[in-house]
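Posting this for the archive.
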Amino acid sequence: MSSRVPSTVSLSLEEFSSHGGLNGPHKDGWGIAWYEDGDIHLTKESLSAASSAGLRQVLNHPFQSDLVLSHIRKATQGAVASRNCQPFVREMGGKWHSFAHNGDLAGLRESCPLAAKRFTPVGETDSEWAFCVLLDALTDLWSIDARPSLENRLILIKRYAESMRKLGPANFLYSDGEFLFVHSHKRYQTDGTIRAPGLWQLKRHCREGGTFDTTGLTVTARGGEQDVVLVASVPLTGENWMAIPEGDVVAIRRGQVSDQSIPIGRAVHPS
């Protein structure tokens, strides 16, 4: 979720857990990260979301944020352990960067070695390795500029996404605390096939003090009108969710989707 202003956010334990082991196969852990005043809160656990007292504690106490990432895990690589649960978080350039991935990237370690060693995985998942690869690709940009331009960020992230797609399903959410970058690729569908769409989005608007509910999420606007963009693996309601086209990288900031489009082949110049 990305919103115009920080709002009270309440995630529904019932709905969240129904995808996390109660009615779905993703029972190998869960995690939630949310930004607040330049900092980030991260809580995760290797238990099924459906039976987690820790998750109940978090979700029964609404928090305020304008940027939230959550993930429920089905283990394909790495042990069922907290270190392998997402989202993953790292500091770079004085900002908290967060990442969550859905898919399976075959041969990632061989194809994308971590030569710089600036960022090293703690766990064994391809997802965390992929996050470290992304941060390596962005390190020089963030070293040059305390706030790189959106154009330069998009160039590198799109180039990175293109390389990940060659290895397997590569849907990911990545945030540097300002923008939420969404890459939609392919995923396992209910019929068992692997195909697009990998992610869906829904845009919403409400007036000051207004509250809107979507399956598993309640957002209450504070201090002004609210714009919200929700992104999920599958539509959560019967509303007009839009499939994000295969291979697209979408940049979202404060509840608004950027219309900036950057060709992958362009050179990167310091801002």
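The helical segments are 13-22, 53-59, 108-111, 126-144, 150-165. The mean pLDDT is 86.
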